[in-house]
């Protein structure tokens, strides 16, 4: 008679790990959903308190002293409950004033924690700037430290002043692609020497892959470094390969520590062709190429991208925080120059009887 082979202790442990792991995932999923519900209720409460304070201040003349008395009263009636200091109560009123009843952002507000709201409220000036950071925070799942970093880096100013440069082919194949890329990527966390080589840049990006993924965007998934590409009898190595879940395509990134040159696109186009022929799965969209270089002349980039047949774009990387004041000044100038066009547009509509 054949003996029944008993499973080894290691096999039992592996089986238990797989089975028990599913239960842990259920617990974690429930915890995340509960956290979202709790956060939504907290934000709703703070908005309503802000509304109440605003009404009493406007109607009854409540001032600083009254709000301080309210904070003390709450502390007495709700001992141990944090978040209702006089300073935070004033912030709740500011929160209500920034997003009054009927605001188009009311649903979005509940997706973001209070600490991130405080950063956005205190460090942005324009309504469209607040909306930009609210949407980015919700879409990208930024923690409060990343929110602060992106505001410090002038992401809004850079997005308005310098939209990403994409090829005509990319615009046709993936009309929404520009929303997922930047004109410049901030890599201040790499602490690279100046000057540095491509090997140093490449190695440092891999050592800080988590932060690089955050800078790229939430939907980017890392596949490999020096990804092997074989064409004919020759072997090639693509610097970095990612997959973008939203665009459903491979994203090839080539690194250059020099200024952009038109010939750089030739090699990138070659890699995209190889990826589409030999790596891309049938249900995926054509691969996108990102040339990440140390600097670029926008006019040279525009000329180079206008004729390329590949879905590609050119961006630069920055190893230091940009001058926020300079960006703010340029943005102010941008809006000032745009204003006359907007006024003329309104005037024309009125004359035509459309406004």
Pick out its properties.
nucleic acid binding; YhcG_C; seven-stranded mixed β-sheet; alpha/beta; 2 domains; DUF1016 family protein; 355 residues; 16% strand; Trna Endonuclease, Chain: A, domain 1
Describe the 3D structure:
By secondary structure, this protein is of the alpha/beta class. It folds into two domains: 31-156, no CATH class; 163-322, Trna Endonuclease, Chain: A, domain 1. It starts with 8 loop residues before the first helix and ends with a helix. Strands 1, 2, 3, 4, 5, 6 and 7 form a seven-stranded mixed beta sheet that branches. Residues 342-355 have low confidence and may be disordered. It has 14 helices and seven strands. Helix 1 (9-60) crosses helix 3 (86-98), helix 2 (64-77) crosses helix 3 and helix 5 (114-123) packs parallel to helix 7. GO terms for molecular function: nucleic acid binding. This is DUF1016 family protein. Residues 179-330 form the YhcG PDDEXK nuclease domain. Residues 23-158 form the YhcG N-terminal domain.
